[in-house]
Amino acid sequence: MRAVTIVDGDLRWAGHPDPVAGDTEVMVAVRAVGINAADLHQRRGFYPAPAGVPADIPGLEVAGEVVATGARSSRFAIGDRVMGVVGGGAQAELALIDERCAMAVPEGLSWEEAGGFPEAFSTAHDALFTQCGLALGDRVLVTAAAGGVGTAGVQLATVAGATTVASVRSPELRQAVAALGAAHAVDPAEALELGPFDAVLELVGGSSLTGAVGALAIGGRVAVIGVGGGARAEIDLMGLMHRRARISGSTLRARSILEKAAVAAAVEAHVLPHLISGRLRVPVEATFPLERADEAYERFAAGGKFGKIVLVTAGGQT
Ligand SMILES: NC(=O)c1ccc[n+]([C@@H]2O[C@H](COP(=O)([O-])OP(=O)(O)OC[C@H]3O[C@@H](n4cnc5c(N)ncnc54)[C@H](OP(=O)(O)O)[C@@H]3O)[C@@H](O)[C@H]2O)c1
């Protein structure tokens, strides 16, 4: 097979041996793969792949057609359309996914949407519901709300009956984010005035976290998921105590297969039905052919996008 391959910080389209499905894995002919910031970090050598996945083939999420199944895998059959989060190796013609981390692609969902769905919606669902315990009527702040995880978070919070404030630094993207259901889609400084917040999906880090903690309601919860704006922040600990607030952090990639399977099961049970009904959608800013990944990475890094950048193979053009 051929795959996007990291060679000394460059991306090459290179040949590799075909992967072989392990006992509980399925092998898919890849149709679409969303790009994530982690891929760009991995390319620069800052985010090595976990054990068990190819070190030089990036790609944290995949959508494709099952072409082989492992000896103990029984959930899917050859020809099924599946999607899910993987530890790496997805930006290739063939990729492996543990069947417990995969879910069926709903009928009517395009390949590009399926490729852009798993990582953003799994991350946002885990942060808002598992970590922050989002509840009906909560007031939620989503920072960096125009990106992949942000657009997922805004929609999930809104569908769950929360009032959502979306912080978006590009003025031209605010209307599109508001159309996802946010009560307010505003400049980051203005967003803080619209609290107090019961839950915060913190995708920027740095001084954004400082502001978010200061805008929490009593009992407020913050999930720190991204630190593109800085991995260190000053926190008013007295305010944190008075608000009886909690800050948690997490990454998906470092979790075990069983932990990732639990995330996938929650997404399958609670998120997929809303994707099928059309209440949730996967905004895709642009698609690129898989073999032109370097252009896609450039577009991702340029920012100013609404939702996801997705790589597609010839079979993923829809
Ligand atoms: N912990 C995890 O498991 C996990 C999983 C997925 C993603 N993440 C992280 O979560 C973050 C969001 O991911 P994503 O996939 O949504 O990325 P994305 O699609 O690239 O979106 C990032 C968004 O953040 C905005 N942004 C970047 N720096 C900012 C700053 N200093 N102030 C305000 N806004 C800023 C960008 O705005 P512009 O367009 O104006 O640049 C963009 O809208 C990333 O840091 C990513 O690494 C973590």
Written account of the structure:
- By secondary structure, this protein is α/β, with parallel strands linked by helices.
- The protein has 11 helices and 15 strands.
- Strands 3, 4, 5, 6, 7, 14 and 15 form a 7-stranded mixed β-sheet that branches. Strands 10-9-8-11-12-13 form a 6-stranded parallel β-sheet, sandwiched between helices.
- Strand 11, helix 7 and strand 12 form a beta-alpha-beta unit.
- Helix 3 packs across helix 4 and helix 3 packs across helix 9.
- It is globular, with a radius of gyration of 19 Å.
- It binds NADP nicotinamide-adenine-dinucleotide phosphate.
Q: What is the gist of this entry?
A:
The protein has 318 residues and is an alpha/beta fold. The chain has helices spanning 37-43, 111-116, 118-131, 148-159, 174-178, 188-192, 207-214, 237-242, 257-270, 272-277, 293-302; strands spanning 2-7, 10-15, 25-34, 61-69, 81-85, 94-98, 102-104, 139-142, 163-167, 184-186, 197-202, 216-224, 246-249, 284-289, 308-312.
